[in-house]
Structure formats: C-alpha cells, structure tokens
Amino acid sequence: MAMTYNEDQSMLRDSARDFMKTEAPVAHLRKYRDMDCKDGFSHDLWKQFSEMGFTGILIPDADGGLGMGHVEAGIVLEEIGRNLSPSPFLSTSVVAVEALKAADKAMRDRWFPGILAGETVIGIALEEGKKHHPEKIAVKAERSGNGFKLSGAKQFVVQGSSADMLIVAARTGGAVGETDGLTLFAVDKDAAGLSMDAARTVDSAMAARVAFDGVEVTADAVIGDVDGGWAVLSKMLNAGRTGSAAEMVGVGTGAMDLTFDYLKQRKQFGRVIGEFQALQHRAAHLYGEMEMARSAVLKAQNFLDEEDPRAELYASVAKAKAGLACSLSVREGVQMHGGIGMTDEYDIGLYMKRDRALAEFMGDIYFHADRVAKLNGY
C-alpha cells in the first residue's frame, strides 16, 4: 500500500491547491456569508468544479466519470478544507455518488450527468437525533400501491434546502436500533408532502430540517435492496467519514499554516514570538499530530479503494484521529494568536467554526473512538 502520492495524484493536488487558493479562498467564504446567501455556496463555483473534473472523480468510467478513487477525492477535499471553500462536493460528489453506484442504470443516468456538469446538488437525509446514530433511524417507509409512503423527519441535512434530490434512509422493517429493515430512497425536492426548514450552521454553511408527511415514491426510487439498505449505507458512511476526515486535515493544516506565519511575524518583548521555546514545542507537537492524521486518512482511503474489509475500521480511525488533530490545531491557533484570535477580523476563528461542523458530521471523536474499540473486540 502506497503511503505517498504517485505522479498523477501529485499533479491533481497541485491543480486543486492552485484552484482553491485562486477561486475559493477564505475571502470567498466571507463574501457568501456576509451576503447571507440562501445556499451558502456559489453555483458558478460548483460549475467550475465540473470544468476542473473534480465532480466526476468517483463516478465510474462506464457512467461518464473519471473512475478515480477516494485517495483522489480526498486530495480535493483537503484543499477545500485548507481554504474553507464552500461547496457541495462532500455530500454530492463523494457520499451521494457512493450511494448511487448501487442504483440501477436508469437512476444513475438520471443523476450522474447533472453531478458531472456541476448542476446537481444532492443532500443526505440521515440524521434524526442530536447525535450520529445511523442504526436508530425511525423515519417510516410503508408500502403504498407500487411504492412507498415516507413519514417522519430528518435534520442537519447539509445543503438540503438547495438540493435537487435527497437520499433518504428510512425504515421498511425491523425495529429502531437494528440495521436490518433499512432502505435508501432517492426523493425529488418537489415531492408532495416534503417540506424543509433551512438553517445556517456555525460554519456559515446551510442545512435543513426536513419533514416527510406521507411522501409517496415509486419502487424505482429505491437504491439497492428493500430492507437491505445497510450494505449501501455502510459504504456511504465510510466514504463520508473518510472524506470529512480528509477535509479536516485540510482545515487543521490551513489553521496551522496561519498560526506558524503569525509566530514568525508577531513581536513581543523585542523578539519574534516564534523564538520562544515553549511556543516552538507546541508548534512541533501540532505538526506531528497533523502528519499522523494525514497518514491515518490516506490509509483509510487506500483501504476503501482496494475494497479491503478493514476499510470500515480505518474510516473510524481516520475520523477520530483527524478530529483530534484538527481540534488541537484550531485551539492552538486561537490561543497563539492571543486576543485577536477571538475576533472576526482574523481568519483563524473561521477555521475553528468549520472544525466544529465537520467534527459532528457522521460521528464525532467519541463516537468513532468507541466504534474502533468495538470493532477491535473491546
């Protein structure tokens, strides 16, 4: 297993880094935050993602995509995190695409072209409680005619209010807390009985609370097998957890770079503060933690691409380790900036906010530390 990038992956990293730095830097985030954009991201930028080839990284060759893997998707996500670039890439081009790979040809033909063109946004309607517990899905999908009728509510659906379609995890059988009896559905945004309440998250992104009041879908809306949705959902979760971990590595690295630059410039007591040994030790520790997180994420990405059964374990290892390292980076950043680190004038606080949002996405540090222990038999 290669733990470094090959030549093509290095070229993709350089391309993504230049693109995000030029087209979607932190100033871009501030612009869309301050204009109170209803979507929280630029649709024009999303089309530029398409022109760069980013939107089709995980879409198979047979469906018109690039047929690359999670290592390549993670390269883009790290640069997104480094620049706090607002986009639907994680939910649409990573998590949703992973789910749609299990859909029939008619559904893939319907949704993949729009994703490839940077015109389609897809929301993941999974969470129902305050914390991430995918096995506790309670939204019901009862048989109705030749399809199903959905009832219940979801929350924290990132970009839900601007999504063209929602991938909804619902219960067609079994009891709450069981993995059997779950089914995934593709639900159009204009489905009768579907309502949304948009809300801005701490990192200035947009999410939605979604209510299903007898929303009727046909059998063609099922992704995968009825009652057997956990197999597809697990792949979605592994992709989302590893992808968000990659973005957190970018967020943590971006915050670290800001902090190190500040340590080289700020003077106190007649000296640049980066010369003080105590701060040097903290900086060295932070650098080491970020590098370990990057390695954990790359290992998880490789396991996913190789369809190794250990991918499930390492997706949680990556999410937990990246969460710890990113949290350390933004906290150290704010502290080393001193009082100005708490002001909106400086970007370091924006990195802390993005860290908090990503930390909760598909399971926080504690969820994944516990899951790693259980998967190892403890």
By DSSP, the count of extended strands is 10
Give the strand content: 15-25%
Question: Compute the gyration radius: what is it?
Answer: 21 Å
Largest sheet: 4 strands, mixed
Descriptive notes:
- By secondary structure, the protein is an alpha+beta fold.
- Helices cover 50% and strands 16% of the residues.
- It has a four-stranded mixed beta sheet with strand order 1-4-5-8. A four-stranded antiparallel beta sheet has the order 2-3-7-6, with no helix packed on it.
- α5 runs antiparallel to α6 and α8 (277-305) runs antiparallel to α9.
- It is globular, with a radius of gyration of 21 Å.
List keywords for this structure.
378 residues; alpha+beta; four-stranded mixed β-sheet; four-stranded antiparallel β-sheet; 10 strands; 16% strand
Concise account of the structure shown:
It is built from eleven helices and ten strands. It has helices spanning 7-23, 26-34, 43-51, 70-83, 89-100, 105-116, 229-265, 277-305, 311-337, 348-360, 365-375; strands spanning 122-125, 140-144, 147-158, 165-171, 182-188, 194-200, 206-218, 222-223, 267-268, 271-272.
